[in-house]
Design brief:
Length: 80
Amino acid sequence: MTIEFHVEGMSCQHCVAAVTNAIREHDDAAQVQVDLASGRVLVDSTQSVDALKAAIDEAGYTVKSAASGTASGLTGNVTR
């Protein structure tokens, strides 16, 4: 499943690496794409939205919203 997170607090490549590593600690096979400028993080993972959100939060970043769907399109805004 593909999940799109809007993450606040990322400002550099170190932040990108921290978020990516936090997600991969929960799912080492996860595919992670981070757009630093927009704060958009796309994750293709078998983990739940809540587990991945918790991983990002634990890394010190704020998830403002999340939407889940399939690789072909995102659906179902899961803002928390």
